[in-house]
Amino acid sequence: MHIETDIKLDFRDVLIRPKRSVLTSRSEANIERTFRFLHAGTEWTGFPLIASNMDTIGTFEMAAALSKVKAMVALHKYYPAEHLVDFFRSEASRNAFFTVGSSSADWEKLAAVKAEVAVPMISIDVANGYTEQFLDAVARLRSENPKAVIMAGTVVTAEMTEALILAGADIVRIGIGSGSVCTTRDLTGVGFPQLSAVIECADAAHGLKGQVCSDGGCVVPGDIVKAIGGGADFVMLGGMLAGHTECAGEVVHELVDGQQISKMVFYGMSSETAMKKYHGGVANYRAAEGKTVTVPFRGEVRETLTTIAGGLRSAMTYIGAENLKEVTKRTTFVLVTAQRNTVYG
User: Catalytic: which of 182, 213, 218, 247?
Assistant: First the structure.
């Protein structure tokens, strides 16, 4: 047994200290960024948000909507191969990850799609990125897809971030138990405060010329700014994008104070709902690590994207960051919990 006594932070534990700025308008803040990927050797330019590969979020419709603002989507892995072939022939596929898990069926589907059309970006997604089996899978994926951008996760520590990059990942997803419909922390006691995980893993990844994607914990636009300020190259969103027209969740109607309110079902991919839908139920050797909730129906996602982009641009004017790459360098975190006057970073 070992106890770490260093301060570890979630997004809610800090604010960003403002700095002198020469920007005169939010319109001067550039929220697009160009990345060059270590193993793929390719470049991508855009707004580095990624819609989660949850089956209610990572949809073709979400991909089309986010592609209009040069943001990305990790498609969920339950589309049939023929639908994926059609999608990867479309313009929106330039900003989309094909998602695979650990099952042979996932890999067979990827092979079938690749036989018909190019798949330039692949996300390998497992709940526990700490197994030797996962490292082997990333290495195999890289060997079979030398020119693809590969995103792998999830993990929360520097040493595993380095291991995944050395195994062939271009981007490492960071976050365990931080999602709004994830119950891993409650059920298992395992996790890591999201902001500190991003800070430590980004430092490790950047030393190897890799990138990280902060996955989970963002509930307001300011959290996205904090993730980027902590070193995240990309930010993955689930709950913040739930409840929109482009989502695949079931729409339900609730009576509130005599008025009918439309809501959408949203659930974690390790929830009982998802397990029943795709696997016939929760296996007797495991427990559900997600929950099912309803969220307000919010119409088309473009309004939410506008709010997110506006919050990010505004933050950049507060700290004097003209370009997105400068945000981390211009960020000083101030603790707002017990140690109110301490700065971090």
Answer: 182
